[in-house]
Amino acid sequence: MLLRDPDQRAIDGAPIAMQAPIALRVSGSGSCRRVLILAAGVGRGHQSAAEGLRDELLRMAPDIRVTVHNGLGASRGPLRVFLERFTRWQLTRCPTAYSFSYFVGVRWKLGRQIALGVLYGAARSRLGSLIDAEQPDVVVSTYPGITAPLGVMRQRGQLHVPVCALVTDLASLHFWAHPGADLHLASYPESLREIHAITGGAPARAARPPLGLAHWTRRGRCATRRALGLDPELPLVLVSGGGWGVGDLRGAIEGALGVDLLQVIVVCGENEPATRRLSSHYASHSRVRVLGYTHAMADLLGAANVLVHSTGGMTCLEAAAQGCPVIAYGFAHGHVRHNTRAMVRHGLIRHAKNSYELTQELRQALGCTQALTPYAHDRACASTAILELIGHTPASPAITLAQAHPVASPAA
Question: What is the pLDDT, as a whole number, of residue 312?
Answer without folding.
Answer: 86
